[in-house]
Design goal:
Largest sheet of chain B: none
Oligomer: heterodimer
Structural class of chain B: mainly alpha
Largest sheet of chain A: none
Low-confidence stretches of chain A: none
CATH superfamily of the domain at 49-207 in chain A: MetI-like
CATH superfamily of the domain at 25-183 in chain B: MetI-like
Shape of chain B: globular
Order of helices and strands of chain B: HHHHHHHHH
Radius of gyration of chain B: 21 Å
Number of strands of chain A: 0
Strand content of chain A: under 5%
Largest interface: A-B, 41 and 39 residues
Number of helices of chain B: 9
Mean pLDDT of chain B: 87
Distance between the termini of chain B: 53 Å
Radius of gyration of chain A: 23 Å
CATH class of the domain at 25-183 in chain B: Mainly Alpha
Shape of chain A: flat
Mean pLDDT of chain A: 88
Order of helices and strands of chain A: HHHHHHHHHHH
Number of helices of chain A: 11
CATH topology of the domain at 49-207 in chain A: MetI-like fold
Chain lengths: ~260, ~240
C-alpha cells in the first residue's frame, strides 16, 4: 500500500488548517468560557440518553425479533405491526405524539397523579427516552428478526439433541449467535441513534443541541455555536465508530 | 367536537390543513430526493473517476454529512444558505429577499441526501461488470453517451435497494424541517393540536398519513424492483 501522505493531501491539510485558523481568530468565541460548563453537561445528557435508549431499545428488540421468527401467530403479527409503525413514521412525530399526546392524557387519570411516578412524568426527559427507546426497538426488532432467522438450523437442532430446554437454548446458542451476526448492523444503528438524540431538544430536554440553541438565543451569535455543535457530534461519531471497529476486529466469530 | 368534526376538511375541522402539510412534505421529499440523486450521480463519478483532490474533497463531504445529525445539518445549512443568498443580493445591489421555505427545504434535504446517494451509486457502479464498460469504450462511445446508454441503466438494479431506502428516509427527514419553522405535515399537526388541545388525535392522524406514504412507496418499490430485475437470476 502506498503512503497516505501525497502532495495534494498536504495542500488540502494546509487549506484546512488555514480555514480552522480563520474560524478561530475572526469569528466570535468569547461566549465559550461562560458556557463551557453547560456544554459539558449537555454532552453528558446526550451520552446518557444514547446509552439508556440503546440498552432499553435492544432489550425490547430481542423479543420483537424472536416473536416474529418463532412466535405465537398473534404476537408475531403484533411485533410486525409495531416495527412497521415505527419504521414508517418520522421519529419527530413519534416523539411529539408521546410528549404532547400521551403526556396530555396522563394528568386526566387520577391514579397516575397519585402514583410515585408522577414527579417523573411531569418532566420531559422520560418521554424523550421512551420515544427514542421505542424507535430503536422498532428498527432493531427488524434487524434481530433477520439475525434470529439466519442462525443455521443445525446448531439449534444440535442444542435440542443435547436436551437443552428452550430457554437454555436461547440463552446459550440462539441469542449469542444472532447477536454476533447482527453486530455490524447494530453498530451502525447506534451511530444513527446518536444522530437522533438532538430531537429531544424539541421537547425541552437540555441536551447538547439545546445548550447551543440557548447560546444562540442569548448571544445572537448564529454560526459559531452551530459549528462547534457539528464538531462535537463529529467527534462523538468518530469515537463510536473507532470503538466498534476495535471490538469488531477483536471478535473471533466471523461468518459471511 | 368529535374526532370526525375535528378532522373535517372545512374550517372548523383541520383536515385540509393536514393534507396541505402532507402536500408540502411530499414536494420537499420529491424535490430533495431528486437534488440528492443529481448530487449522488455527480459525486459517485467524481469519487470513481475524478482527480485525487476531488476524490478527497468528496470523501470529506460524504463523511462529514453522514456523521453529523440531520437536525444540526438542516439548521446549519438553512442559515448558511439564506445568508449566502442575501450576501449575493447585497453584492448585486438588490434588497435582501425572503427565502422561499420550499426551495430552502428542498436544497437542505438534497445536500443531506446527496451524501448518502453518492455512496449508494458509487457502490452500484462498481458492481457493474467491467467488461460492459470496456466494450462501450471499445465501440468508441463518448463518456456522455456511455453514461446514458450503459453505466446508468446497468447500475440501476444494484442501486435500487439503497435508493429506495433513501426515498423512505427522505420522506421521514422532511419532518425535521418543522424545527426551522417550515409548515410541513408534522408542524401543521402540532399547530392543529395546539389550537384544539387534541394532540393525540392529530398526531395519530398524521402518523396514519406518513404510514400510508411509506406503505404505498413499498408497493411501488416492489413493482420497480420486479421490472428492474427481470431477466436476472433470482438472488437469495
Amino acid at each position: 500500500m502506498d503512503s497516505w501522505i501525497k502532495p495534494h493531501r498536504i495542500v488540502l491539510l494546509l487549506l484546512a488548517v488555514a480555514l480552522v485558523a480563520f474560524i478561530a481568530t475572526t469569528m466570535h468565541w468569547e461566549w465559550l468560557p461562560e458556557y463551557a460548563g453547560a456544554l459539558v453537561a449537555g454532552v453528558w445528557v446526550t451520552i446518557l440518553i444514547l446509552v439508556s435508549t440503546v440498552i432499553v431499545g435492544f432489550l425490547l428488540a430481542v423479543p420483537l425479533g424472536l416473536f416474529q421468527v418463532t412466535g405465537p401467530k398473534p404476537l408475531a403479527l403484533l411485533s410486525k405491526c409495531f416495527c412497521t409503525l415505527i419504521r414508517g413514521t418520522p421519529l419527530l412525530l413519534q416523539l411529539w405524539l408521546i410528549y404532547y399526546g400521551v403526556g396530555s392524557l396522563f394528568p386526566q387519570v387520577p391514579w397516575i397523579r397519585d402514583s410515585f411516578l408522577w414527579p417523573y412524568l411531569r418532566e420531559a426527559w422520560p418521554y424523550g427516552v421512551m420515544a427514542l427507546a421505542l424507535s430503536f426497538a422498532g428498527y432493531e426488532g427488524e434487524v434481530m428478526r433477520g439475525a434470529f432467522a439466519g442462525v443455521p438450523g443445525g446448531e439449534l437442532e444440535a442444542a435440542r439433541a443435547y436436551g437443552m430446554k428452550p430457554f437454555t437454548l436461547l440463552r446459550r446458542i440462539w441469542l449469542p449467535r444472532a447477536v454476533a451476526r447482527a453486530l455490524p448492523t447494530l453498530n451502525g444503528e447506534v451511530v444513527l441513534q446518536l444522530k437522533a438524540t438532538p430531537l429531544v431538544a424539541t421537547i425541552t430536554v437540555i441536551d447538547l443541541y439545546a445548550v447551543t440553541s440557548k447560546v444562540r438565543q442569548a448571544t445572537y451569535i448564529i454560526y459559531e455555536p452551530l459549528l462547534l455543535l457539528a464538531l462535537i457530534y463529529l467527534c462523538l461519531t468518530g469515537i463510536l465508530v473507532a470503538t466498534f471497529r476495535y471490538f469488531e476486529n477483536k471478535s473471533p466469530t466471523r461468518d459471511g | 367536537m368529535s374526532a370526525l368534526e375535528l378532522l373535517a376538511f372545512s374550517p372548523p375541522g383541520w383536515g385540509a390543513v393536514l393534507l396541505r402539510g402532507l402536500a408540502m412534505s411530499m414536494s420537499v421529499a420529491i424535490g430533495g430526493y431528486l437534488v440528492g440523486l443529481l448530487i449522488g450521480i455527480g459525486g459517485a463519478f467524481g469519487k470513481l473517476y475524478g482527480g485525487p483532490m476531488l476524490r478527497d474533497l468528496l470523501a470529506c463531504y460524504t463523511t462529514v454529512v453522514r456523521a453529523i445529525p440531520e437536525l444540526v445539518l438542516i439548521v446549519l445549512l438553512f442559515y448558511v444558505g439564506s445568508d449566502i443568498v442575501n450576501q449575493v443580493m447585497q453584492f448585486l445591489g438588490r434588497p435582501p429577499m425572503d427565502i422561499n421555505g420550499l426551495v430552502a427545504g428542498i436544497m437542505v434535504i438534497g445536500v443531506v441526501q446527496g451524501a448518502y446517494s453518492t455512496e449508494v451509486i458509487r457502490g452500484a457502479i462498481k458492481a457493474i461488470a467491467p467488461g460492459m464498460i470496456e466494450a462501450a469504450r471499445a465501440y468508441g462511445m463518448k463518456p456522455s453517451l456511455m453514461l446514458r446508454r450503459i453505466t446508468l441503466p446497468a447500475m440501476l438494479p444494484h442501486a435500487i435497494p439503497g435508493l429506495s431506502n433513501l426515498w423512505l428516509i427522505a420522506t421521514k427527514d422532511t419532518a425535521l424541517l418543522a424545527v426551522i419553522g417550515f409548515t410541513e405535515l408534522t408542524l401543521a399537526t402540532r399547530q392543529a393540536g395546539g389550537a384544539t388541545k387534541h394532540y393525540f388525535l392529530f398526531f395519530s392522524a398524521a402518523g396514519v398519513l406518513y404510514l400510508t406514504i411509506t406503505l404505498l412507496s413499498n408497493v411501488l418499490i416492489r413493482i420497480i424492483e420486479r421490472r428492474a430485475y427481470r431477466g436476472m437470476p433470482e438472488v437469495g
